[in-house]
Amino acid sequence: MDQDNKMNRMQELIELLNRAGKAYYQDAEEIMSDYQYDALYDELTGLEKELGVTLAGSPTVNVGYEVLSELPKERHESPMLSLDKTKETEGLEEFAGSQKVVVSWKLDGLTIVLTYRNGELAKAVTRGNGEVGEVITNNARVFKNIPLQIPYQGELILRGEAIIGYRDFEKINAEIAEVDAKYKNPRNLCSGSVRQLNNEVTAKRNVRFYAFSLVKAENVGFHNSRAYQLDWLEKQGFEVVEHYMADGDSIEREVIKFSEKIAANDFPSDGLVIVYDDIEYGLSLGRTSKFPRDSIAFKWADETSRTVLQEIEWSPSRTGLINPVAIFEPVELEGTTVSRASVHNISIMEELELGVGDELEVYKANMIIPQIARNLTRSGVKDIPEICPVCGGPTEIRKVSNAKALYCVNPSCQAKQLKSYALFVSRNALNIDGLSEATLEKFIARGFIHSYTDLFHLDRYQEEIQTMEGFGEKSYQNLINSIEKARETTLPRLLYGLGIANIGLANAKLICKETGDDREKLARLTEEELSSIDGVGGVIAKSYVDYFADAGRRGAYEELLEELHIPEEKSTGEELIFEGKSFVITGNVQHFANRNEVKALIEAKGGKVTGSVSSKTDYLINNNTKSASSKNKKAKDLGIPIISEEEFLSMIEERS
User: Fold this and answer.
1) 298, 325, 349: which is the final residue of a domain?
2) With contact defined as beta carbons under 8 Å apart, do 107 and 212 qualify?
3) Domain housing 556
4) Helices assigned H by DSSP within 166-278
5) Are 96 and 166 contained in the same domain?
6) Of the candidates 268, 298, 297, which has an alpha carbon nearest to the alpha carbon of residue 366?
7) Does position 638 have pLDDT exceeding 70, yes or no?
8) CA 42 to CA 368: how far, in whole Å?
9) What's the whole-number mean pLDDT along residues 598-617?
10) Is pLDDT above 70 for 176?
């Protein structure tokens, strides 16, 4: 395995082990045995030792959180200058001349300077004003991909860009209720995340670091090549900015290649950087008072187009905010057809004096996000809706800081119930593929969904859905097929999907089993009946009864029963020899295909299987009964029998 493959394997192991750790410690579930976990952990430790690289996020290190009163300031060893810019490829050809150049993305985030000493991250400082930056070392330690340890033991200083991708930007913004508090773009979000006084906040923001230049590394032969420096940084464990070699004859082709990738990129970029590969030649050119002469930035020339505003679409969100979206006559921009652009709030509409029929000039910011550049006719804002387009409830204009925005004030508005719909279609509930939260939000905003039953009649909106961004004939048909497939389900899945407080899938199974899968009786259960079920306490019982006491919710449940086909549970004829017994299964199995088969057998015989050992556990099944795993240790401390698979099968034989 070469070094690149070893680095990729290291990243795979970190992701897998962190996922397993979260499942075990937070969700009380197992996605792998202790044996498998230990083996993968040992493999990761071996790779870290072999490569001399330890990445942030690795389960082999634990970075503590820290809260500061303010960020300390520090002067850079050498000033960080801006780059001269051009929007013409002819300017790049002239710049390159007969020299080889390195072409890379100009990432749109926050520039960071990192210093490593003795193979460890010693310091991280923001660009600041180019002369003085802010020290954010402990924040950098929780970036998603930054190496905390590297093989090189000398002093290394490098520069790179901290960024947050579009998907994370949209997710974080969606969770912010107030319009004025939302971040305007990923760069603003990244800047705020990197400069937090509490790095626990930084850790949740999925900040990534991409190296783009090496400042200092003594006693390393770089063959007088910037490209070689980037390759060397990659071998130290850094993710480096995507880059390619070019010259005066080929640079236009490289620019075109980069431009073709923009639409698929998750990261923000506002152009390209071109630097001479020959280090000594570049340094010999010196610099102006503002710019270095060895590099130049290429900025995308914004392609604009004129069009006519057809309507303002008001799009409600989960927070009650109703966003105005400009719908205009379709135009071609940057190779795609564009017909809509977010206007964000009423204040921006008023600033643009935006009215239906106005002639607009539109463009794509950074070749990605459609925006209105100018309103050429400015007829004025009118017809702000007084009722919510989703629920018909009243709206009000609120001023948050300096921005005016429209809100739905109905607490029961369907747009505010997005999380409920997302749970209903999730894998453990109705399992409808193709209905992500983003898609659900769009469907709710357009009035396609007012209740759970509407999810089974989206075929009413075939024409509209097929014309929506991200949908076509094939994706629409896949969605409809998934909906039809979801009509056949089980009562526990339906019960879980209703989102009753404190009712998980395991509790739903217990409750359905107690009623004999009687769908009418499920809605009439009393707190006393529920509390008598092993595993269902008073809190759960009250949540359940309160849910079905609401006439609207009970009616929705009954309507769903008409939409769904729930086959009767066939009696297995199994003797319930494990009734009232609780098992935990860990490690590898030999007589079964997997642990799920063991679980199914236990449940068929009346038992229950949980993910973690507790005082309520009756047996721990582990073929390695003498293992020093955490489950074995806890079972021994609690006096719980640890039995092998053979002993488990013998129990069945003896009791049958």
Assistant:
1) 298
2) yes
3) 491-563
4) 166-174, 186-194, 199-203, 226-235, 251-261
5) yes
6) 268
7) yes
8) 43
9) 84
10) no
Which among 478, 398, 497, 492 has a CA at the least distance from the CA of 434? Answer: 478
Q: Which CATH number does the domain housing residue 340 bear?
A: 2.40.50.140
- pLDDT, position 36: 64
570 within some domain: no
Contact 325, 398 (CB under 8 A): no
Assign 71 to helix, strand or coil: coil
Neighbours of 77 (CB within 10 A): 11
Q: Is the pLDDT of residue 121 over 90?
A: yes
Alpha-carbon span 390 to 76, nearest angstrom: 54
Asked if residue 397 lies in contact with residue 343, where contact means CB atoms within 8 angstroms, the answer is no
For β-strands 619-621 and 642-643, DSSP reports them as parallel
Same domain? 526 vs 466: no
Average pLDDT of span 238-259: 92
Q: Are 165 and 185 in contact (CB under 8 A)?
A: no
For residue 531, what pLDDT is reported?
Answer: 84
CATH of the domain at 498: 1.10.150.20
Q: Would you give the DSSP letter of residue 570? A: P
What is d(CA 592, CA 584) in angstroms, rounded to the nearest whole number?
Answer: 16
Both 526 and 461 in one domain: the answer is: no
Report the distance separating Cα 331 and Cα 340, nearest Å: 10
Same domain, 332 and 463: no
CB atoms within 10 A of CB 550: 10
Is 105 in contact with 242 (CB distance < 8 Å)? yes
Which residues, in sequence order, are bridge partners of residue 311?
Answer: 327
Closest CA to 543 of 518, 521, 511: 511
DSSP string, 434-455: T--HHHHHHHHHTT--SSGGGG
Annotated catalytic residue 616? no
Is residue 334 in a domain?
Answer: yes
| Cα gap 482→484, rounded to integer Å | 5
Assess whether 143 and 274 both reside in one domain.
yes
Residue found under tokens 């004859």 = 249
Residues 187 and 241 in one domain: yes
Sign of the C-alpha dihedral, residues 623, 624, 629, 635? positive
**∠ CA 43-48-50 to the nearest 5 degrees?**
90
Q: Which residues contact 363 (CB under 8 A, 6 or more apart)?
A: 302, 303, 304, 305, 333, 370, 371, 373
Residue 16 inside a domain? The answer is: yes
Q: Is 590 helix (H, G, I), strand (E, B) or coil?
A: coil
Specify whether 85 is located in the same domain as 204.
yes
The CATH code of the domain that includes 28 is 1.10.287.610
| Contact in structure between 153 and 116 (CB atoms under 8 Å) | no
Cβ–Cβ under 8 Å, residues 500 and 544 = yes
How far from each other are the two terminal CA atoms of the chain, in whole angstroms? 52
Our count of domains for the chain comes to 6
Residue that finishes a domain, picked among 422, 456, 486: 486
Please name which of 350, 276, 274, 261 lies closest in space to residue 312, comparing C-alpha atoms: 350
At 29, is the pLDDT very low, low, confident or very high (cuts 50, 70, 90)? very low
Structure-token pair, residue 421: 């719909």
Residue 112 sits in the same domain as residue 242: yes
DSSP state letter for 499 = T
Strand partners, 362: 305, 372
Torsion angle of C-alpha atoms 230, 232, 237, 242, degrees rounded to 10:
20
- In the predicted model, is pLDDT for residue 103 greater than 90? yes
Choose among 637, 618, 538, 617: nearest CA to 28: 617
Question: Does 574 reside within a domain?
Answer: no
Kindly give the pairing relationship between strand 321-333 and strand 304-316. Answer: antiparallel
| Active-site position among 22, 100, 106, 404 | 106
Which three-class secondary structure state does DSSP give residue 553? helix
Query: What distance in Å separates the CA atoms of residue 340 and residue 358, rounded to the nearest whole number?
Result: 14
Neighbours of 200 (CB within 10 A): 13
Tell me the CATH number at 155: 3.30.470.30
